Amino acid sequence: MIKERVSNLHEVGKILVNKYKGSFVNCLEQADNSAQKLLELVITDFPCYRDEADYQGHKVAFYKRAQILIGDIWASFRGKGLGFFTDIDSITMFADYRIPQSLIHFGALKYSDELMAILKSGVELPSGSPEEVEIRACCIHAVSMVCEEVHRLLQEEGIQNLSINSILIDHFLWDYRRQHAEQLETIPFHKTRCIYY
User: Quick one: signal sequence residues (predicted)?
Assistant: First the structure.
């Protein structure tokens, strides 16, 4: 989808030049250290970041690329300066096609036999299809539950100076999948062609 991605780059470049004086820093400054404000700015001003689907008549918003943008800024600046957000914990995991493999491996997610058969067949799931939306949404929910459990365990152990959020869990799961690619390759992943991940 190189043409679509190049088109996205052109779109973003034009908006940055016309609305933000050619610098994303100006967008960051408008967000006033709020991850949610920055997310809203990005999905409002940059249409190619509007990762949304219709699921049984309801709008489902994933905003994977917009959230990973915010998460990467936060991580790159170690939560300081341009990467300081007062509400960074409101960002969800970045719903893609590889994290489910790690979640299944650890038992935090399980596919139905019917879905597993579809995925093993290698058939492409259309972007916005019920199966694709369900996989992505369940991953967000699973990581949120893992995050809650980690918070509970830290509190139980009296550990107060350690911060955890869905971004860090996503990074762990992504890295784990890469480091154990051969082992996790036996778990099928959904194949979807889109510009959102």
Answer: none
Q: Just list the catalytic residues.
A: 96
Same domain, 70 and 18: yes
Q: Which two tokens stand for residue 58?
A: 């309801």
Phi, psi angles (nearest 5°) of residue 30? -65, -25
C-alpha closest to that of 171 among 42, 61, 68: 68
Give the pLDDT of residue 161: 85
CA atoms of 42 and 34, how far apart (whole Å): 12
| CA gap 60, 48 in Å, rounded | 16
Range of the domain at 23: 1-89
Q: Say how far apart CA 88 and CA 105 lie, in whole Å.
A: 27
Our CA angle for 56, 38, 63, nearest 5°, is 30
The pTM of this model reads 0.92
**pLDDT digit string (tens) for 131-189?**
999 999 999 999 999 999 999 999 999 998 888 999 999 999 999 999 999 999 999 99
147 in Cβ contact with 168 (< 8 Å): no
Give me the amino acid identity at 176: Y
> Do both 123 and 172 map to the same domain?
yes
